[in-house]
Amino acid sequence: MNDDLLEQFIAEARDLLVEAGEDLLALERAPADKARINRLFRSVHTLKGSSCLFDVPALTQVLHAGEDLFQAVREESLALTPEMVDATLSALDQTGKWIDVLEQTEALPADAGPRASVLAEALRAHFRSAGKSDTKAPAASVAPTAAPPALATWFPPATLAACAALSGELHLISYEPEESCFFKGEDPLYLALHIPGLAALALETRAGWASLNQLDPYHCNLRFHAISTAGAAELEPAFRYVAAHVTLTCFAATALRDSAEVGLPPIVRDLLRMQEEMLRYEAPAQEMPGRLAAAAAVARHALIACGQDPDIDTSTPEALRRALEARLAGPERSVAVATEPAPPVAGDERAGGGRRVLRVDQEKIDVLMNLVGELVVAKNSLPFLSRRADEHYGARALAREIKDEYGIIDRITQELQSAVMAVRMMPVGQVFRRFPRFVRDLARKLGKQVDLVIGGEETEADKNVIESLFDPLMHMVRNSLDHGIEPPAERLAAGKPETATLQLLARQDGDQVVIEIIDDGRGINPAVIRQKAYESGLIDEHKLSAMDDHDAQMLIFAAGFSTAATISDVSGRGVGMDVVRAAVEKAGGKIALASTLGKGTTLRLNLPLSMAVTRVMTVVQDGWLFGIPMDMVLETVKLPRADVSRIKNAEAFLLRDRIVPLQHLSKLLELAPSAEPSDEISVLVARAGGQVFGLGISAFGEVIEVILKPMDGILSRITGYSGTCLLGDGKVMLVLDLKALLT
Amino acid sequence: MIQRQGDIISLEGACSVEDADALLRQIQDGAAALDWSGCTFLHTACVQVILAAGLGLRGTPANDKLARWLAPLLPVASSPLTETEN
Questions:
Q1: Nearest CA distance, B43 vs chain A (angstrom)
Q2: Is the CB of B44 less than 8 angstroms away from the CB of A182?
Q3: To bridge A227 with a disulfide, which of A106, A200, A427, B53 should be the other Cys (CB 3.0-4.6 Å)?
């Protein structure tokens, strides 16, 4: 199997499956959408076509059934029902799973065959129950069985076309003789040539041929594939001595008609037509035999060239004309079926061929990103060099020149950086597109009616950010559906429309992506939350009374909190929202909540556009330099020491009528104080873990952009630091994890 | 039966399983093409040798089944002789 080809197939298959899933859901809402059904049919058709290149009969079988179903829907002989959508979705799911397995093992799992039959049968059940009169199999008793997918790899198209012109059922016989069969007196070729009703024969070599010097002619390296018009009752006795090495597959001759590229190639058709035309004109009697012979020779050679049966009646000009007409007529219909192009769909990129996409391994981009990071750091050393040139060597002119050069390199580096970032950018839609299906299935399961509205899917963010988004979003959407949105009856009683609306919106806001999940459900009842939190011991009585409604609602993000009265398999196991919060914060994001009782809930995620570059504020403490992520810093204040009040052991200060606890970085890090305490302390007001703290430090530094490298190896166990970064002068700076330090 | 005329190897009559070895040796000695116009039976082992050698076949075998089913699957020798065919 060709690895590159398989890789391409897998990537293509994934895209097509996603597209097909989307189209299917859209069709369920708007069944009349012609463009969608065409696109859907084409996705499945393309997928089925490419699957034939590989030995994945189960996959092809399922896709073929799907293709037939959509063909019928497309021809409007079948209306799409939710049950059909269910069956198709599960078929697509299974296909997706097989693609994953295929990627890992280059083969389908052992149970693929039986599963495929079940799925294909489920799809065909709808097809048949619709009672379409002109379905492909005239024999009503036997379901039309899909043609074995690998046929096209063994038999030339013209041979298949010839077989497609046959009627009734065909059998594919695949015969893989034992390697040592010659020593048992077997002659597989003889057996193959004497297959009853033989209609096509193909030879396949199992492994490449050895060089003639090493060739062992008595080691069977061949496999035979044959198509026969005979029934199993006739075929089985023929193979009774080698039954273990033969597989029989029954399929309808007509099933071959829709396999792609069946039929006479256009040039052969033209040649045959010309011969037929030539024979129609009158000619002197003595010229006729020559003309007949010429026409017969051309026709026969043309048929041989395309692998067709060259056996035609050439006895008289009339007979030959009729034979040619028959040949031209027969396969033409099947060609028309096979190649009938779907009408072009507006906005279809593939049809327009406008956009060119390059698939690149993410590792390569990561390497590029790291190199850019190093370049940024190297670039940052130039200002140091410039200063040194001025101060140390007294070369002011040189210092200025270095600075000028730095300006240029700085600009190019920034452009390079944003270009690499742009490569890593992915539209949020990549994540959003998985939700229509998810919401539909969940709503059906919960017996709720939900309209999912997606907006801003073109908003872009870094791949890592996008990828970290799916799980939190899924938890939140699941919670909305399970806890937020009411059953239809309850909604009607509350005077709301029966169908709830769930919005999933994204937009860019400065250097952040904002994602909102808005439902119009029952909202979060702060009283219930308070009670629940109190009962589960999350808050004490004191807090219970002091807490305002919003703070109470925010308790849903606390670890170990769950309001669901019964634990369902949907949500409510007490994990969820705290996990969501942790995941979002890990990605450098924030989560906010607004909920009105009876009206609905809005969850808002703020995520950085990119995780690659972090803005940190540098602070100096006792001669050490530390970085603090800017998204934690609220403000910086200079505080007279006299304004710090002591409450028992703790220190606090008043900031705009609010008491803010004060901690000292030197104490937190257990640093030895290097200087006398001054009258004024620099305080960094930061938010960590939902609380506001003051952090006393020696001095503020500047805000810089750094490439934050997480601590790895044995350092990863040290808490209190979120990572390290390189500074322009080559020093390593530790970046603090305030949350771990303060809480 | 395997026969040799110059650089053409002829497959005459029935070419049995034993002939595969002879055929292989003849081909190893060097040959331009195989002529199977007189061939009435060809054993699978001989077919393997022909396929492995990649030598083209001349003529149409004397056996219908071979001519109809096997001939299209084997390499064809570019032959000046075939022009005389009807």
A1: 6
A2: yes
A3: A200
Distance from C-alpha of B35 to C-alpha of A388, rounded to nearest angstrom: 89
> pLDDT, tens digit, for every residue of A535-580?
877 777 777 777 788 888 888 887 666 554 444 444 444 456 777 8
pLDDT attached to residue A337: 34
Mutation target for B interface from A155, A187, A198: give the one with most B CBs within 10 A.
A187
Q: Distance, in angstroms, between A103 CA and closest chain B CA?
A: 33
The reply to whether residue A217 touches residue B46, judged by beta carbons under 8 angstroms, is: yes
Nearest Cα to Cα of residue A322 among A371, A280, A289 = A280
CB contacts of A293 in chain B (<8 Å) are 86
The answer to whether residues A719 and A740 touch, using CB atoms and an 8 Å cutoff, is yes
H/E element, A147: none
Q: What are A4-55's pLDDT values in tens digits?
A: 778 878 888 888 888 888 888 888 888 778 888 888 888 888 888 778 777 7
Q: Are B36 and B59 in contact (CB under 8 A)?
A: yes
The Cα–Cα gap between A323 and A309 comes to: 12
Select the residue of A190, A217, A293 nearest B49 (Cβ to Cβ). Answer: A217
CA-CA distance, A403 to A442, in Å (whole number)?
Answer: 60
Q: B70 and A304: CB-CB below 8 Å?
A: no
**How would you write chain B as a 3-class SS string?**
CEEEECCEEEECEEECCCHHHHHHHHHHCCCCEEECCCEEEECHHHHHHHHHHCCCEECCCCCHHHHHHHHHHCCECCCCHHHHCC
Q: What is the pLDDT of residues B64-81, one digit of tens each?
A: 888 888 888 888 876 444
Residue A528 tokens read as 């219930």
Measured between CA atoms, how close is B45 to chain A, in angstroms?
A: 5
ipTM over 0.85: yes
* Nearest alpha carbon to residue A625 among A739, A734, A737, A740: A734
Instruction: Look at chain A and report how many structural domains it folds into.
Output: 5
Domain that holds residue A474: 428-608
Tell me the pLDDT tens digit for each residue of A690-735.
Answer: 788 898 888 888 777 777 777 777 777 777 888 888 776 778 889 8
Task: Give the homologous superfamily in CATH for domain B2-77.
Answer: STAS domain (3.30.750.24)
Domain endpoint, select from A558, A586, A608: A608
**Strand blocks (E) in B6-62:** 8-11, 13-15, 33-35, 39-42, 57-58
Q: B22 to chain A: nearest residue by CA? A: A217
So what's the pLDDT on residue B84? Answer: 41
**Is there a single domain that holds both residue A650 and residue A719?**
yes
Put simply, the answer to whether B24 touches A293 (Cβ < 8 Å) is no
The minimal CB distance from A215 to the residues B49, B66, B69 is found for B49
- A203 CA: distance to closest CA in chain B (Å): 7
Q: Do B73 and A189 touch (CB under 8 A)?
A: no
pTM: 0.46
Is A619 found in the same domain as A601? no
Residue A163 in domain: no
- Chain A residue closest in CA terms to B69: A201
pLDDT at A138: 33
